[in-house]
Amino acid sequence: MHGAIVVLMALALPAWGQTVAMTGHMGSKALLVIDGGAPRAVAAGSTVQGVKVLSVSPTEAVVEIAGQRHTVVLGASPVSVGRAGAAAGGGSRIVLSASSGGHFRAQGAINGRAAQFLVDTGATAVALGRGDAQRLGVDLSQATPTQVQTANGATAAHRVTLGSVRIGEVEVRNVEALVVPQDMPYVLLGNSFLARFQMKRENDLLFLDRRY
User: pLDDT band at residue 125, thresholds of 50, 70 and 90?
Assistant: First the structure.
């Protein structure tokens, strides 16, 4: 996978729940993740698992599935989700691709509003800054004050319950979270969310399969 761009963008396909994601390109070949499998380099004109690649560019691949054309774009949400019924938030698998620094990031939503996530297996709960909390419509008026330990020592925080946390087509409801005073570049995706999934890492991919 040398020289590949490790950004993941998913294309949710029709009712049977097949997904195709483009994780990068290698010359005339697209690196595709199909149904959460290992990335495969596929050239234009080739067909893999029922997915025919029609054209490849550095930023997208045009594929044909069951006679229908779809464009898979590189560089957006690093998520691939796919199961029947996923369009309604009923997906059960998330696939994340590691950044160059080895971190797993995701674009998603909290309470229906866009949020940027960073996976943090060392965090007991989802954590976000006060600015993000206000932007996302998190009500702090009924929140429980608490203390949390940070790299700079103990700080005051508010314990809240998020109505929903969604990544791609996987939505988890009633997720415990901590709101801290300082702003953060990402919402930390801690174990109050991650514990609901079976986690498995394979090379630069992190698979989250929903447990409940």
Answer: very high
In contact, 19 and 34? CB cutoff 8 Å: yes
pLDDT at residue 18, rounded to an integer = 57
Q: What are the CB-based long-range contacts (under 8 Å, 24+) for 198-205?
A: 199/121, 202/38, 203/1, 203/38, 204/1, 204/6, 204/97, 204/98, 205/33, 205/38, 205/39, 205/95, 205/96, 205/97, 205/98
**pLDDT reported for residue 151:** 66
Distance in angstroms (rounded) separating the CA atoms of residues 75 and 122:
27
Handedness of CA 39, 43, 44, 49 (dihedral sign): negative
Length of the chain equals 212
Contact 187, 135 (CB under 8 A): no
3-state SS track over 93-115: EEEEEECCCCCEEEEEEECCEEE
**Can you spell out the DSSP letters for the chain?**
-TT-----EEEE-STT--EEEEEEEETTEEEEEETT---EEEETT-EETTEEEEEE-SSEEEEEETTEEEEEESSS--BB---TTGGGTB--EEEEEB-TTS-BEEEEEETTEEEEEEE-TT-SSEEEEHHHHHHTT---TTPEEEEEEETTEEEEEEEEEEEEEEETTEEEEEEEEEEESS--SSEEE-HHHHTTEEEEEETTEEEEEE--
38 token code pair: 């290992």
